[in-house]
Design brief:
mainly alpha, Tetracycline Repressor, domain 2, 10 helices, elongated
């Protein structure tokens, strides 16, 4: 059973499917989540805090998916192809993930900024959310760091910089499929696998 915090974020996301963020009312979100409006304010501090929490959850969920894609045993090509496939799927199905990865925010989405002063929220998850979402460059950097760590484990490359360069190329290729789908029904994974397999030893 979801916590009140999770239920409120789910209700806010559901509201975003029918109206832009500026039109989403906190009283409606609380009602849809089955909690009081005071509970909403206790958890998030207000609408801006809820926006930051939504975006932080999207970023965390995307990064968790990256880690899952890198977990299975296999070659570099397979694991990076799985990461590319996840990136494309997440960006196409979650507008917040797409905005986080591309920096393109529309009027329908909350676009929160970090608080100017450190958060005083009594909720640890909210204090983290109040620090603000990562920029696209920061998010790609976090993905690259995870990929390099996973791919280099027990097998250092001939060139230490090569895994980072390869991951950067893979992610940018995946994003191109996410924002401009191919006319041919396909995805980035097979192309990523082919590119990595042709690359020097990573």
């Amino acid at each position: 059973m979801p916590t009140a915090r999770e239920a409120l974020m789910d209700a806010a996301l559901s509201a975003l499917t029918t109206r832009p963020w500026p039109s989403v009312r906190m009283v409606d979100v609380a009602f849809a989540a089955g909690v009081s409006r005071q509970t909403l304010y206790n958890e998030f501090g207000g609408k801006d805090g809820l926006a930051r929490a939504l975006v932080r959850r999207a970023a965390d969920g995307y990064l968790a998916g990256v880690e899952r894609a890198l977990e299975p045993p296999g070659g570099t090509g397979d694991r990076l192809a799985a990461t590319a496939a996840w990136t494309v799927r997440a960006a196409r199905t979650n507008a917040l993930v797409r905005a986080l990865l591309t920096g393109c925010w529309g009027e329908w989405l909350p676009r929160p900024a970090a608080l100017a002063v450190p958060s005083s929220s009594p909720v640890p998850a909210q204090r983290r959310a109040d620090a603000g979402p990562p920029t696209p460059a920061e998010l790609l950097g976090l993905v690259c760091d995870r990929a390099v760590a996973a791919l280099s484990e027990g097998r250092p490359p001939l060139d230490p910089a090569l895994p980072a360069v390869t991951c950067e190329i893979v992610l940018r290729l995946a994003l191109s499929y996410a924002v401009a789908a191919s006319a041919v029904p396909t995805d980035a994974a097979p192309l990523v696998r082919e590119v990595v397999e042709r690359w020097p030893a990573v």
